[in-house]
Amino acid sequence: MAGEPSTLEPADGRAPRILIVDDDEVVRDAIGMVLSEEGYDCHSSKGAEDALEAVKELDPHLVISDMKMPGKDGLWLLDRLRRERPDTAVVMLTAFGDTEAAVECLRRGATDYLLKPPKATDLLRSLERALSRRRDERARERYRTSLQRTVREKATDLRHALVEVESAYHSTLYALVTALDAREHETGDHSQRVGRYTLALADRMGIPVERRNDIFRGALLHDIGKIGVPDAILLKPGPLDETEWAEMRRHPQTGFNILKSIGFLKVPAEIVLSHQERWDGSGYPRALRGDKIHVGARIFAVADALDAMTSNRPYRTSMGFATAMAEIARFSGTQFDPAVVETFLAIGQAGLETIARLETRPL
Question: Are 193 and 66 contained in the same domain?
Answer without folding.
Answer: no
